[in-house]
Amino acid sequence: MAHSETVFAPSSAPLEIAALVLPRASILEVASVLDPMRNANRHLGREGFRWRVVSPDGAAVPLTCGIELPAVGPLAAAEGADVLIVIAGYNQSEIATRPLIAGIRRMAGRFRMVGAVDAGPWVLARAGLLDGHRATVHWEDLEDFALAHPAIDVVPDRFVISRNRFTAGGAAPAADLMLHLIGARCGAALAGQVAASFLYEAQADGARPQRPGMLPQARDARLVAALRQMSAHLEEVLPLDAIARAQGLSLRRLEQLFRAGLGQGPAAAYLELRLQAARRMIIDTRHSLQEVALRCGFMDPTSFSRAFRRRFGAPPGRVRAAVRRG
């Protein structure tokens, strides 16, 4: 029987969560979902939250760090939980088989809410469970996810709650989401205690962007805003004077700001963002090298290959071949 009531509401009843963890997920993503609940129970002095880990075949799940995570059983073992959360990382398109997708689709109505973390939204989308909902995914996948699933309102937020669905863009956003859940059910004070236990400053507003700026050493708000603008325009590269004007700066002042904050000029920083994006696509997607070049603002494949080789020590094709051999 389908449930419509949200779990993000005050309640003293225990909430039971089934985490479907796919092979090649990250241990940090799993911990970000489970450990806040464990810590909340410690502060509550009772079981406000219960959880179980299930896997596609019921066997222990190999994570990206080499550790195997025990599971209580296959997807069917999630039966009876209030919430199902799909945690996925690399190669979800191959790991999440058609029978698994069909099983998730068939069981979805038995949970009060269904959610996903990192690449997990791809799995829910393939099952048709996010159509008509707002959702997010890891920022590296946002463009491809939106193109592949036009029936979903894709946003670049840290986490999104959309009626009886929720999605989080990665490990840290998943922790934010779980702290939000703890606060909604048990009060903001408890959520604060849990965050303090992990020395973690939670981003309570899920609508905040997943990445305020690509380079963590950026501190000046105008510098962060300029980097964000660059990151949003990798394919159609903006003129530097347009970026300067958007921040109310002269081109010379923008140059000074970048050199003071990052130790490099805006042109070099912009190129770095584009090349790093290209490298991620080459490693993590099946896009042709020509498409990767175009998506990262390189109209000429030769200039792209030259810039890529200068930055990473090998041409794009060789990097992709090495990854596939590995």
How would you characterize this protein structure?
The chain is α/β, with parallel strands linked by helices and 326 residues long. The chain folds into 2 domains: 15-197, Class I glutamine amidotransferase (GATase) domain (Rossmann fold, 3-Layer(aba) Sandwich), CATH 3.40.50; 221-325, Arc Repressor Mutant, subunit A (Orthogonal Bundle). It is built from 14 helices and 10 strands. It has helices spanning 27-44, 92-95, 98-107, 120-126, 142-148, 171-186, 188-197, 221-231, 240-246, 251-262, 266-284, 289-295, 301-312, 316-325; strands spanning 15-21, 49-54, 61-62, 68-69, 83-88, 113-118, 134-135, 153-154, 159-162, 165-168. It is globular, with a radius of gyration of 21 Å. It starts with 14 loop residues before the first strand and ends with a helix.
Question: What features would you highlight for this structure?
Answer:
Rossmann fold; 326 residues; 46% helix; 10 strands; alpha/beta; two-stranded antiparallel ribbon; globular
